Amino acid sequence: MPDTRTPDFYNVESLLSEDERQARDAVGRFVDERVLPIIADCFEHERFPSELIPEMAELGLFGSTLTEYGCAGLSNVAYGLIMQELERGDSGVRSFVSVQSSLCMYPIHTYGSDEQKQRWLPEMARGKAIACFGLTEPDGGSDPGKIKTIARKSGGDWILNGAKMWITSGSIADVAIVWAETEGGLRGFLVEKDTPGYTTRDIPHKFSLRASVTSELFFDNCKLPAASLLPKAEGLVAPLSCLTQARYGIAWGAVGAAMACYREAVEFCRQRVLFGSALIHKQHMQVRLADMLRRITIAQLLVLQLGRLKDEGTMHHTQVSLAKWNNVRMALDVARESRDILGAGGISVECSPVRHMLNLESVITYEGTETIHQLIVGRELTGVAAF
Ligand code: TGC
Ligand code: FAD
Q1: Prediction pTM value
Q2: pLDDT tens track of the chain, all 387 residues?
Q3: Together in a domain, 165 and 293
Q4: How many CB atoms lie under 10 A from the CB of residue 261?
Q5: Atom of ligand 1 at shortest range from CA of 136
Q6: For residues 46 and 319, what is the distance between their CA atoms, to the nearest angstrom?
Q7: Separation of 155 CA from ligand 2 center, angstroms?
Q8: Residue 189 in 3-state DSSP?
Q9: Which of 10, 78, 242, 264 has the fewest CB atoms lying closer than 10 Å?
Q10: Mutation test of ligand 2: which of 203, 366, 384 has the most ligand atoms closer than 8 Å to its C-beta?
């Protein structure tokens, strides 16, 4: 049985349904048996473990909250727990599933034509087709209302020009969901990988999310058929609605990364004897561990209530911003604290906190930086946009 519960200081377990526990524990087993044994090596050698894709598909992890087209139709709380377990393994693995599910299958399901749904969703649910989401551009990601990628109408086709940067799964994707300005406003397009004029280039030498593929995308006069346009996605609200789905999963995922770091720190403190006693006997160490537990407990309760609101259909995207901000900041602080508690050994790739800490530097930046989420909440409470 995987230990998917430690820490659980407020008995969050008692608030979960049997289905939710089962979904979490199935993914917990997968993470323990298949991800954790290889992930340090993947991180060290900058390799995404693509061999795990078929097993992730078998577990129903792609598009798991969607209905039909081979998707599992799980609750949002179950989805959150899945994200928690995946990120207990590594943010890069969670990121892959987030992008495939929340940023790519969700917009096809929500904004796509029947043909687009039939063409892509079953293949994506089976992990046979991989997708990426291109919104961020080289000149800045925080203000997607000002993107420069352009799609121009040419007869019945579209001609796409521009570039995207920092795109998860970019070079391994069979299809890219690309957001571009048109005469009629911002629209989304499905760009298949063999489209002439579409090229990708991986971004090397990352010190973060090393077990994840991150790429640039280039569009040089790409001719796209009319059927590549997502017909129901009009304006900035469409990509932002996808971000809400992914940010929701990240808020849960961050809890998993923090749980992993906390556990490693507690275990180390039990074993390490200094000045005549194990570190758990030191007052200052107990305060540090207690403080980690406090932060994790608050984050666990925050996402559970967020998930319940999402499942009842009353969640607002500004509530997701507060959770993404709080939980990723919490996880980054807990990872850094755990790294320090492990002493010199804590800088080794063999210990997970330093890997989680470095990964979380990306997580706190992508899907809206911490500042952007603070400003989103600030706008909600004052009515004044201060971006
Ligand atoms: P704004 O006026 O706020 O919004 C325009 C319209 O959209 C609505 N809206 C949202 N709807 C759903 N979800 C959200 N999160 C929404 N945010 C806004 C809004 O109500 C409005 O609707 P309507 O009907 O009134 O038109 O637009 P703005 O230009 O002022 O936007 C401001 C801001 C800063 C909040 C927005 O631009 C923003 O969120 N920027 C951050 C960009 C970002 O997060 N990029 C992420 C790229 S993808 C990524 O990082 C993937 S990493 C994946 C991985 O590996 O896991
Ligand atoms: P900028 O927008 O240039 O921001 C720079 C700094 O200015 C930040 O500190 C920011 O907080 C601050 N700032 C911005 N606006 C304000 C303001 N109004 N007031 C004060 N400070 C401000 N994007 C995708 O589209 N798809 C992906 O799959 C994807 N995957 C990613 C994977 C990784 C590993 C990483 C690191 C990023 C990924 N991104 C992806 C991009 C990510 O969404 C952007 O990095 C993020 O939105 C921030 O954009 P930026 O890096 O251009 O920073």
Answers
A1: 0.98
A2: 778 889 999 999 999 999 999 999 999 999 999 999 999 999 999 999 999 999 999 999 999 999 999 999 999 999 999 999 999 999 999 999 999 999 999 999 999 999 999 999 999 999 999 999 999 999 999 999 999 999 999 999 999 999 999 999 999 999 999 999 999 999 999 999 999 999 999 999 999 999 999 999 999 999 999 999 999 999 999 999 999 999 999 999 999 999 999 999 999 999 999 999 999 999 999 999 999 999 999 999 999 999 999 999 999 999 999 999 999 999 999 999 999 999 999 999 999 999 999 999 999 999 999 999 999 999 999 999 999
A3: no
A4: 33
A5: 47
A6: 34
A7: 35
A8: strand
A9: 10
A10: 366
Last residue within a domain, chosen from 70, 102, 125: 125
- Residue 142 Cα: closest atom of ligand 2: 2
Instruction: Identify the domain boundary among 95, 125, 155.
Output: 125
Give the residue numbers marked as catalytic: 367
For residue 286, give every residue at least 6 positions away whose Cβ sits within 8 Å of its Cβ, in sequence order, or none: 280
Residues with CB under 6 A from ligand 2: 99, 132-136, 140-142, 166-168, 209, 214, 362, 365-367, 369, 371-372, 387
Query: Among all chains, which residue has been given the structure tokens 């005549």?
Result: 276
Phi, psi of 215 (to 5 degrees): -135, 165
Q: Which helix (H) or strand (E) holds 162?
A: strand 157-168
